[in-house]
UniProtKB/TrEMBL annotation:
Residues 19-77 form the XdhC- CoxI domain. InterPro entries: MoCofactor_Util/Proc (IPR052698), XdhC_CoxI (IPR003777), XdhC_Rossmann_dom (IPR027051). Pfam families: XdhC_C, XdhC_CoxI. This is Xanthine and CO dehydrogenase maturation factor, XdhC/CoxF family. It comes from the Bacteria.
Length: 326
């Protein structure tokens, strides 16, 4: 699983102050990752990614110097050139990466742990970084809780002001999206595992307790058993959730969907042909948020390929919303 911001700040519970954080603050052109990507360096260890492996070794050397002299560094990597003497070396990124390295002191460590606690509560966090280059490199970090999720559309990532003396950078970190899978059979678990590795938190819903033993899952999962709790208690679904219905039981799917339609929904994917979904809902006019058949049409066969098509569609939908917001 690729380590993202949420996983990195979770490491703050274990790491002491004094490690070095590298943040991708601006991208010109194309790159493997975008603004907000972060790495941590401590002793001879590192976690996270800034690129596809092109600049990490150099960042490690710079991080050692930053840790030693406690002075931040601003570095720019030009990946556009593809000759042997350049950073690109045929990597195909064809972008310019602007990276800021700084020591994670006690104050920044507390701020990162605050961001972690807010994200766990479902709150978005705006990271604002004021960077001074003159007379010497320094940073002022702020992590601001965004109360109204609609306000997220007001913020874009990257450098918003820059001159020879310094710059202002902002990035909005949002809570990890949640995937709720109705149907904890083998194919449902396959979708859930791939989604977890892609960055979702997971809830499995089923009426069969034997399918919901957390010990049988190789990844963290929340479970909800309809046999003991009932559909009427399934009220924790919110408008940010992704939901996939794939129990293979027509009546159970129908009951579950009838409960879902009482809530504001963002994405619901239903396994099987569209005609089956129309029969499940009793209408040929499907809401826009229902994707049936679920997944992108890539000719997938078998649980693993179907899981790939479902995750591809979920990512596409989430990115379309992000692009409309920025």
């Amino acid at each position: 699983m690729m380590i993202g911001f949420y996983e990195l700040i979770s490491m703050m519970d274990e790491l002491k102050a004094g490690c070095v954080a590298a943040t991708l603050i601006k991208v010109e052109g194309s790159s493997y990752l975008k603004e907000g990507a972060m790495m941590l360096f401590w002793e001879e260890n590192q976690a996270g990614m800034i690129s596809a492996g092109c600049v990490e070794a150099d960042l490690m050397e710079r991080a050692r110097r930053v840790a030693a002299d406690r002075i931040p560094q601003y570095v720019m990597y030009n990946m556009k050139e593809e000759d042997d003497l350049s950073w690109g070396q045929g990597a195909g990124c064809n972008g310019v990466l602007h990276v800021w390295l700084e020591v994670v002191d006690d104050k920044l460590r507390r701020q990162l742990l605050y961001a972690k606690s807010m994200l766990e509560k479902g709150k978005s966090i705006l990271h604002r970084k004021e960077i001074s280059l003159m007379p010497y490199p320094s940073t002022v970090n702020e992590f601001i809780k965004v109360e109204d999720t609609d306000q997220a559309s007001l913020f874009s990532s990257g450098i918003h002001f820059m001159d020879h003396e310094g710059m202002v950078y902002t990035h909005l970190y949002e809570p990890k999206p949640r995937l709720i899978v109705f149907g904890a059979g083998f194919d449902g678990r396959t979708v859930a595992e791939l989604a977890y590795k892609t960055g979702w938190t997971i809830m499995m819903v089923d009426w069969r307790p034997a399918f919901l033993c957390k010990e049988d899952y190789s990844f963290p999962v929340e479970t909800f058993c309809l046999e003991s709790d009932g559909l009427s208690d399934l009220c924790m679904i919110n408008e940010r959730d992704f939901i996939v219905v794939m129990s293979h039981n027509f009546q159970k799917d129908k009951d579950f969907l009838s409960c879902l339609l009482k809530e504001p929904l963002f994405y619901v994917g239903v396994l099987g042909p569209k005609e089956r979904t129309e029969r499940l809902l009793g209408t040929k006019e499907l809401p826009d948020f229902i994707h049936s058949p679920v997944g992108l049409s890539i000719g997938s066969r078998g649980p693993q390929e179907i899981a790939v098509s479902i995750l591809a569609e979920m990512i596409k939908v989430s990115r379309q919303v992000t692009c409309r917001q920025i």
